[in-house]
# Entry
Amino acid sequence: MPKQPSLPDHLRPELSIVFVGINPGRRSAAVGHHYAGHSNRFWKLIYDANLVPEPLSYRDDRRLPECGLGLTNLVSRTTASMARLTPQDYATGRLVLMEKILRYRPRVVALLGMTLYPILFPLEPNQSGRKPGLQPATLYDSNIVLLPNPSGRNASYPYHSMLEAFRTLTPWARSGLKSHP
# Structure
């Protein structure tokens, strides 16, 4: 099977929030845009949580920095599921992510997937009881907010629960975004 290209980051200095996914799925890699899976709820969630001023789709991922938001992944390698990632993928990805956070210094690092926290903070106690929301740890002065993975495969989180978690980011979103019903 030919190697699929990794997705480009959408990062720049002074972002309010950087969303960190686990790794690109096959559809996202194939179309060249983040969160492009048919059942992925990321784009609806960021609009409904009032983090962007208008509905966006995966085709608009390059526009997120205009809203003070960024996108990256812990692991750049495309897989059908995270089950195919190796400990080496995670170790390498952790170092690369730390460099990105140090370079760009966002106000918040939003981890998209409950499994990301123990990968980034393996020595912290009480990993099994971790809940979505603001976490006690920081990365280079960036707050950490843990969110459920918006993938449609994550059926354990209904939409309203995900939206509640995404709304914890609203205080950090750039001011000036207009509210919507």
Observations:
- Residues 17-172 form a domain with the Uracil-DNA Glycosylase, subunit E fold (CATH 3.40.470.10).
